[in-house]
Each structure stands twice: as structure tokens, then as C-alpha cells.
């Protein structure tokens, strides 16, 4: 079943059509990479999904229900979570406190203050378990400002995962990260999501990562869908090679 589906999704900025009649869907358990040249409309598309922008025309169906113009927090509460290009980590908190804050914000959706207090120990062990899964467990008591940029991005992903998303959207999860850490972030993400039936959608410029970690690739150009399919097919497409991979 599709976690999310768009129908003829369109966004205009004045005269410019940044996203044009995009039909897209992502199934439970899928990891989908979005690729496209600069200005293709990838970020605008994702901003429409998360509610940062409202569509000019078209529909977004999430969990079987139309999102219409639901605000960002409402979509996040329903399980449509976005991690940011610049990690939204609080530098003054420890890694453990950062992850617990994500868990607590998830729990605040449904719980009373009283049950949250009872739940104190549970959130702690859950946060430690997540930090361990993402390789940060040994540094749980360091403040976030003390860890390198690449590890902060892992922490950011870990916090997004703590929100228990139905669909996690990542905008260039590995940008600004050293090559060896890029694979570490993607591997940990994939390993984690293999244990859930949640879906992941990530924007990525690094074709090697797309080839290795995406189950499916959605290529955009000039606001439109160019091609949608398995990585081996999309990355070998002649237009993709010319327009996106910069090959003649
Ligand atoms: N708020 C805005 N107002 C006007 N035009 C915008 C706005 N946001 C994006 N655009 C334009 O929409 C088009 C698509 O931009 P977008 O950032 O979505 O592309 P992208 O594929 O994410 O590019 P990149 O890979 O460079 O991040 C571009 O022409 C951009 O200049």
C-alpha cells in the first residue's frame, strides 16, 4: 500500500512552474532516491510534501487521507517527518538528551504529563538503544557541539528516526560529510529501516549512493518527472546521463 501519493502536484512561483503535474507514489518499506539537476524542483517537491509550501494545483494523499493544506506540525504528527540538511540538533544538549527530546516530542502527541513522568526511564533506554544502533552510544553523554559534523548528521537522522515516521524525508543526508561517513550514514539508515515498514525518501546528488541504497529512483528535470524506476534502469537512461550525470 502507498504511504504517500501525489496527483498532478504543481507549484508555481509567479511565472515559474517549479513542480509540474508530478504523479508520484512511495510504498511501505521502500527507500526512494530523488535525483535531478540544480533547479529541477526536488526541494520544492519535498517542501510541498512536508507542508512548508502549499501546492498551486494537485493532491497529496498520505496514509490514505488527503493532506490538503495541513501545516508542517500536523503532518509530522501524522508520521511525515523531515530531517534537515543542516542538522537540527541542539548543541547545548548531550546526544542522549537530544534523542530523548525527539522521543518526548513524539510521545507528547498522545500522552498526559503524568504518563510522561512515569515514562521517564523508558525514554532513556529507548534513546540509548537508538544511539547504539547508529553507532553513537559510547558518546551519549558528550554535548552535541563536541562531535564532528558527520556524526551530527547521524545524530540528526537518529532523532528523525526517534519520531517513528511513517515516511522519513531526507534532504541530502550526506552533504558536507566525508566519503567514508556517507556510506556509514546510509548503511545505518538502511539497516534501521529494514526492521520497520516505514518508507524513506531522500534527495541525493551522489549517484553512487543512489545506486547503492535506493530501491527505486525518481528523476526530475525542469519540474517534471523524467523517469521513475529501479536504480540500474534510471541511472543508465540516456537523458539522465546527459541531464543529471553530466555525461555527453
Ligand atoms: N521560494 C521561491 N520563489 C521563487 N522561485 C523559487 C522558490 N523556490 C525555488 N524556486 C525556483 O524553483 C525552481 C526549482 O528549485 P528547487 O530548489 O526546488 O530545485 P532543486 O532541484 O532542489 O535544486 P538544487 O539541486 O539546486 O537544490 C528553481 O528555478 C528555483 O529558482
Automatic annotation (TrEMBL):
Residues 4-247 form the ABC transporter domain. GO terms for molecular function: ATP binding; ATP hydrolysis activity. InterPro entries: AAA+_ATPase, ABC_AA/LPS_Transport, ABC_transporter-like_ATP-bd, P-loop_NTPase. Keywords: ATP-binding, Nucleotide-binding, Transport. SMART domains: AAA. One of its GO terms (cellular component) is plasma membrane. It comes from the Archaea. This is ABC transporter ATP-binding protein. It comes from Haloglomus irregulare.
Amino acid at each position: 500500500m502507498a504511504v504517500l501519493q501525489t496527483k498532478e502536484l504543481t507549484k508555481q512561483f509567479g511565472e515559474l512552474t517549479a513542480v509540474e503535474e508530478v504523479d508520484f507514489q512511495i510504498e511501505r518499506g521502500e527507500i526512494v532516491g530523488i535525483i535531478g539537476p540544480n533547479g529541477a524542483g526536488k526541494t520544492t517537491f519535498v517542501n510541498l510534501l512536508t507542508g512548508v509550501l502549499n501546492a498551486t494545483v494537485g493532491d497529496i494523499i498520505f496514509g490514505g487521507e488527503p493532506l490538503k493544506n495541513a501545516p508542517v506540525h500536523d503532518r509530522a504528527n501524522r508520521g511525515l517527518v523531515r530531517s534537515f540538511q543542516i542538522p537540527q540538533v541542539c548543541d547545548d544538549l548531550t546526544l542522549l538528551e537530544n534523542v530523548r527530546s525527539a522521543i518526548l516530542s513524539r510521545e507528547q502527541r498522545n500522552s498526559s504529563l503524568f504518563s510522561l513522568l512515569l515514562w521517564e526511564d523508558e525514554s532513556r533506554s529507548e534513546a540509548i538503544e537508538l544511539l547504539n544502533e547508529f553507532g553513537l552510544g559510547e558518546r551519549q553523554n558528550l554535548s552535541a557541539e563536541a562531535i564532528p559534523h558527520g556524526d551530527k548528521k547521524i545524530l540528526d537522522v537518529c532523532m528523525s528516526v526517534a519520531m517513528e515516521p511513517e515516511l522519513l524525508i531526507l534532504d541530502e543526508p550526506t552533504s558536507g560529510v566525508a566519503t567514508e561517513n556517507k556510506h556509514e550514514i546510509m548503511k545505518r539508515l538502511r539497516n534501521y529501516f529494514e526492521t520497520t515498514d516505514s518508507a524513506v525518501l531522500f534527495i541525493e546528488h551522489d549517484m553512487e549512493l543512489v545506486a547503492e541504497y535506493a530501491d527505486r529512483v525518481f528523476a526530475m528535470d525542469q519540474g517534471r518527472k523524467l523517469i521513475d524506476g529501479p536504480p540500474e534502469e534510471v541511472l543508465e537512461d540516456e537523458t539522465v546521463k546527459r541531464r543529471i550525470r553530466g555525461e555527453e
